[in-house]
Amino acid sequence: MTLEEITYNKFKHIYKVVTSESFIKMTSLQGEIPFWIAPYNVISENQVVVEIENLEKKLLNEGFKPLVIDLFKLSCNIIDENIGLEELFEIEKEMEKLYFKDAIQSTINIHERLIPAIIEMVNENQPQMLFLKGVGLVYPFIRSHTVLNNLQSAVKHVPVVMFYPGEYSGLSLRLFNEFEDDNYYRANNIDSQKI
User: Domain containing 127: what range?
Assistant: First the structure.
């Protein structure tokens, strides 16, 4: 089976999972938080972007209410609102990379800006499910386990699926199959979910 076929089949499985009553009503979790990781091979990034769009359209057409949040676009919006993207480009020219990374993280401020923005979008849209994408594009400024850790107390009334370019063992995240992204064991691997 080709990588393209594997990715296509993965999204067929994801569709079956997220449209199941037990997923939407969060009844099969035995007290666990309704967080899911959908790991994928980073080589398939372009196909995954299209598959997420197709999944969203199909769900909307069938009467479901998903909310897709692109962490990269959201981060750019936060930066633009707080210092401006043009200003950021000027700062980058003059600042050492380590300090620049700190400046971006400080501007995005996961606790005071990013997570509240996600919560606001969820509250405004009242979705049946939340999909997070753009994880690879925000690395190393935003770490996926940090987003999940901070969301788990705020968004527990709606199932969350994070599309993750790497591996998830059920205990740890490995971004791009290369970088240890710290331990995170509260989420379920959507690939192993039985329908």
Answer: 34-190
Burial class (CB in 10 A: 0-12, 13-18, 19+), 29: middle
Tell me the residue length of the chain. 195
Which pLDDT value is given to residue 184? 62
- Kindly state the tokens that stand for 172: 């740890």
Residue 127 contacts residue 63 (beta carbons within 8 Å): no
- The bridge status of strand 66-70 relative to strand 129-133 is parallel
CA distance 66 to 58: 10
Q: How many domains does the chain have?
A: 1
Cis bond upstream, residue 165 (ω within 30):
no
Using alpha carbons, select from 170, 193, 165 the residue that is nearest to residue 183.
170
Give the mean pLDDT per block of 10 residues along the chain (195 residues).
95 97 84 89 96 98 98 95 84 82 88 96 97 94 88 89 91 77 76 86
In a domain, 144, yes or no: yes
